[in-house]
Fold:
Amino acid sequence: FEEAIELWQRYRDNVFALMTDVRLPRSGVEDPDAGFVLLDRIRADEPELPVFVQSAEPASLARARRQHLPHADKNSPRLARQVHGFLQEGLGFGEFVFRLPDRTEVGRARDVFEMEKLLETVPAVSVEYHASRNHFSLWLMARSMFHLARRLRPKTITELGGVEASREHILAVLREARIEEQDARITDFSERRRGAHGPFMRIGKGSIGGKARGIAFVNAMLAREGLAHRFPGLEIRTPRTIALGTDEFVRFMDDNGLADIVHRTGDGSALLRRFLDARLPNTHLRDLEVACQGMRGPIAVRSSSLLEDAQFQPFAGIYATHMLPNVHGNPHVRFDEVCRAIRAVYASTFSREARAYMAGTPYSIEEEKMGVLLQEMVGQRHGDRFYPTISGVALSTNYYPTAPLESQDGVALVALGLGQLVVQGGAAVQFSPKAPAHRPQFPTPQHWLHYSQRQFWALDMARPTVDFFGGDEASLRLCPLADAEQDGTLQTVGSVYSAEDDILRAGLTGAGPRIVSFANVLEHDSLPLAPAIAELLRAARRGIGCAVEIEFAVDVPARGAGGEACLHVLQIRPQATHHMTGAVRFDDIASERVICRTRRLLGHGVTGNLRDIVQVTRRTLDAAATPTIAAAVGEIDATLRAAGTPYMLVGPGRWGTSDPRLGVPVAWEQISGARIIVETSAEGGATEPSQGSHFFHNIASLGIGYLTVALELDAESWFDLAWLGAQPASRQVGEVRHVHLEQPLLAYLDATSGRAIVARG
Structure:
């Protein structure tokens, strides 16, 4: 009894029902009437608070009946049903049932939209009946619209000036609720309310999947925090989005008999063909077609599975995304392309890459269900090219901070054009939102000249249909920077290299090589990009409760076009992190046993029993040679994985990059058997690990240790390549060696102190 009173006093502004037993301990003694005393005490403060009494004692039930209180017999087989009825109608979790004082039903509202329409016409006595009992405020509270409910709750009909004045007041609050619901929540699409949909619509039942949940969270966060217009010159929002629920995927698999086929077919192309030839369920096809008609520009059709972006095992880049130009003159062809893209996303659930990734998680492919996200693409059309001025990824934890920055200051990676370059580990510009002018990734103008972005990704608008067998990039094309200069987009992010004085000058005035430096944005504040990203990361981390990763695109209007730039949040997910539990001790590691040490690492813990090393022997990075090296690594990885043999992977440059100038462009399934990955310096200098890439994200989420050994970045780092070269190779494929050791290696990674050692056992 005392604990209940304390809870009421503490949370009374947020309590909207009392459910109580009758016999409770009170003053240390069981009191058979304590529940009724509690009820009287609370109703003295809040006379209209809904209450529900439950008891196994006939006398208590009779007393509740006499007082006209909702009640239930705890021994009744109908107990659950009675509680359910109280929650649905008494607390507003179900439909709102408009009644007359004699309980005659005069209408039902499923949502705010329908309630608003009905409230305009129901009899005044019904409005008075519900308003006098706080039914409207309860119904809003059940939908988490607490501040709107509080606007209704304290106002009596008399204070508002009568029943009709009350009706107008309630209608005004409901209109505000509908707008809030549209801006910050998901609305189910329906043709009957075409004009009442917000920026996020759901079609079909079941889960909307991880990516869609993330977008819904961002919409709510932007509304709650008031971030949309906080930064002058840069609006923040999400793209117009349609989410297709996972029940449609289950129905698609069942209707077309695909459940058995996916386990019998190992050929990815054959499987994709079967999915493309199958038919989508008719259940919501018309709704989908009508909803897509509202998307005027290009459409990104993206996976949003149950397991994607989960807090403890977030997937990234495992399933398909297809970008559609959406320009064909025939609307039926455009919609057919959307349907084909959805089926292709469904097929990616069972791709070889997805199976390889799933094998390293606690899940099985049978547990996965695929939702689909359709988003309006961000950007402008320039002839046959469509792309945003800026794309990027921001992370709230920086695994490789450089002084004076700290890990919690975060990091962002940005590029010109579509974000394909960033998430594939290409030559993006890296900065901290806290100190955007500090960019140690490019310490000299020569580094900018040799390692900065040289091309950008754009959607090819000249091809109105997509070859889905060509993968995620089938509708894209790589363009030279000269195209961006012609389009006027390079001006925002570009600089010119002056050979005469070996410096970069922001802007494109003068002759010289064009460099994507983001100097105007990050040093001269032409856009408040860094503070906007910093605030997004802060709010998202607080809202989700862990480190986060955000994908975004920035649309900058052409000069003279008017309007302000807009940052669109495309995706948000928990940042993949290693579980840093347990101490890692280095005390008893003899120096003669050490073959590798570094202070630039990702991971935590001790990995033992590593008897195999896969090494790339080449020291230089040649764009023509590294794809062949990636294939050789994949061949050896497949053999070791088949034997259940974990190994350490060693090679120059950035692993998993899409830019062969920067490292070995391996796909995930080509190295998925590795447990420790070591990145050594290539001749010509070291490259920063690409923290924003999907490859890096999946390494972190699967607990794979990643070590960067580069004297340019860490003067204490070292790898005994001479010792490794002296070990006999049990197999060699081109420039890739497989070494099997008699003595196992142990890898000690301590993320808390930023220290890693690999030693012979």
